[in-house]
UniProtKB/TrEMBL annotation:
Gene3D superfamilies: Glycogen Phosphorylase B
EC assignment: 2.4.1.1
Record's function text: Phosphorylase is an important allosteric enzyme in carbohydrate metabolism. Enzymes from different sources differ in their regulatory mechanisms and in their natural substrates. However, all known phosphorylases share catalytic and structural properties.
Cofactor needs: pyridoxal 5'-phosphate
Family note: Belongs to the glycogen phosphorylase family.
PANTHER family in the cross-refs: GLYCOGEN PHOSPHORYLASE, GLYCOGEN PHOSPHORYLASE, LIVER FORM
Name of the molecule in the record: Alpha-1,4 glucan phosphorylase
Catalytic activity: [(1->4)-alpha-D-glucosyl](n) + phosphate = [(1->4)-alpha-D-glucosyl](n-1) + alpha-D-glucose 1-phosphate
InterPro entries the record matches: Glycg_phsphrylas, Glyco_trans_35, Pyridoxal_P_attach_site
Amino acid sequence: SPYLEDSRTGLGVDTLKRAIRNNLFYVQGKFPEIATRNDYYMAIAYAVRDRLLQRWVASVKQYIQEKHRVVAYLSAEYLLGPHLANNLINLGIYKETEQACKELGLDLDWLIEKEVEPGLGNGGLGRLAACYMDSLATLEVPAIGYGIRYQFGIFEQDIRDGWQVEDTDNWLRRGNPWEIARRELSYDIKFGGYVQTYLDRAGKLCFNWIPELVVKGVAYDTPILGYKVNTANTLRLWKSEAPHSFDFQSFNAGDYNSAVNSKIICENISKVLYPNDEQIEGKRLRLQQQYFFVSCSLQDMIGIHLRQGEKIHDFHKKFVVQLNDTHPAIGVAELMRLLMDVHQLEWEEAWDITSKTFAYTNHTLLPEALETWDLQLFGSVLPRHLQLIYEINRRFVDYATIKLYGNHQKISSLSLIGEGPRKYIKMANLACLGSFAINGVAALHSELLKKTVLKDWYELMPHKFQNKTNGVTPRRWMVLANPELTNLISSRIGEGWIKNLHELKGLEPFADDPEFRKEWMQVKFNKKKALAKRIKKRLGLDVDPNSMFDILVKRIHEYKRQHLKVLHIITLYNQIKKNPNMDVVPRTFIFAGKAAPGYRKAKLMIKLINSVGEIVNNDPDINGRIKVVFYPNYNVTNAQKIYPAADVSEQISTAGKEASGTGNMKLSLNGALTVGTLDGANVEIRECVGEENFFLFGLTADEVAKVKSEGYKPWDYYSENPNLKEVIDQINSGYFSHLDSKVFKELTDSLLYDDQYLLFADYQSYIDTQAKVEEAFKDQDKWARMSILNTARMGKFSSDRSIREYCDEIWKVESVPVTLD
Ligand code: 26W
């Protein structure tokens, strides 16, 4: 070539080679003879980062110069998954980098596997935030994601003797090449203490919050690049530190121990992610985390706004702030505080701006997941915010009293403050009142919100309610996780579908093409072989890639009903035991998922899966025809290996309980057929793929409500269904637990005497549907056809579609194509 590409921005193979060698030498002080696998991983990561930075700087520059409206996504969790391969794909240099590595004697895939993923989330909500960041950048929308830079993310799960064991996730151990610490960008965050009131010279009542603790929040930025565009948005995560010159350190002058102690207290705030999902734990530290990151983020936004020469009065025109569930809902009170106490606005104007700034997404209907804070605790952490919430509530209750003509029951349900033996703050109510839009995450979920948990809000403010069905990014969940299927699809319909998933429709005619069906099934088989190999390596277990891979992967929770799947497996086992020569379709049941460390029944469900596996996998009568696998430490990295290998996707939550689900979308996109209830986004998936390509079972949400209201008696189902009775008795007899009949008693008792999630009511329907799955799988050609049509019709479930809807219908933001100079 006539000229040499820049070492830090060039995308050619030779340049990449040069960049990798340079980084190894100049960034890490290493040379090939002594470089480790991690050194090479780092060298490549830095080479990629340089290329990201070029686009990132261009994006930020353009946003500042042209003063665009910006989306701020506030989320306590981001479950990003590994960066390297994703960035290579979005930069469009996967092949080139692979070649560069090869010429350096390196295997790119081997190095990619070296990356420890940032597990800064629990599950659905955090992973959704990550998909949305990808889509925002791909759609070239100016956006900042704000969150917490946890030093320890979601725990690592190990299985010992069938039980879950947790280990800390020290993801920063080897450094993080994807982030840039912005030491200069920091804010002071106050905690505790008391509020002084005084009159200023004009006689205006003023508030002065005297904290008991001040913590510094430091920004750590990670660029998020869109797919084959120049847009690189920012994910800004806050780390807590002791302020360098904090006032109260002088109190401790000469007291080394308490100085060190206060440093520890400060750093604790961003120390660790709370590993609970769908279950609140009213811990002071969690409230501190929420306030910490929300205050840093709002101060940051105001700073950005004012530095552009704009007026504080126009804040809501510059930023729209999306609340990812109620975890950041304290932002409503915090923006009021900043506008009034710091920027001197009057109440009316501050409230006008605040209520035009926020929008709230609800992600769960489970009552135990709706956040509340003990009022005393809240006041001791955030005394000024407690005052503000009282005042917000006072004004609201006055308004509601007139609007609702004194309907006291309704007013007390709408109140931001709950009464009882102890008073508490209702975060969902704060979010609803302080937001101009409220949305659920699937059509059914949004309807149920209006009918149940947010009914009173809906009746008072119907104009705020919307639906935004979740989506997933096809870049990570197809292009990256399943390059083989990606290539096969693109060979027939081109690559347009990667950015416009609706184009998958073009695959439909190929369902009738025997050659295409053969190639489709070959890809699936290869992915199953690859997963089988991993299972062998991790667990020493042989599984047959010719068997049906029946997959249930998600957080472990009673409402998600992993134990219903276990009842099915035992039923099948019993059938084979009684008739060893029966013609059974070989199946591999694969489970994965973490249980919250304090959730005893969920941990018992894991033990049950493993105990049943131990018996089934080793029974000579079964002879390997059915196998049960619990794949440990479910995370993004492992999910990428599991989804492409699935024949069957199990989405079996009790109808009305799963807000949306997103694993259901990833599995279906990868060609798995769904066995599911009419819950969450399953409803819409079934509508799209066609009922003939979906295995439906179980009660509907309405029927569930009806059965419950009529006094559900699980015992009746047990005593009337001999197969079900046999299964439960068998578990209770100790058959799966070395004759120890007590191990699973807590679980079986809760089913027999309560069964909140209606496993027994849905049992027979589930078993019958599984028989249909088995029949369908016997006709592999028909199965291939169904699988292809299923994928072809998943266009709706791209997060690009979700984000476009958010942009048009809630955020009112537009694309800003970024140019590189
Ligand atoms: C305070 C404890 C807590 C922590 C996390 C309560 C609730 C949560 C999340 C809201 C739980 C969650 O991740 N919900 C999931 O959100 C996904 C994205 O919208 C949906 O697809 C899942 O159905 C929903 O369970």
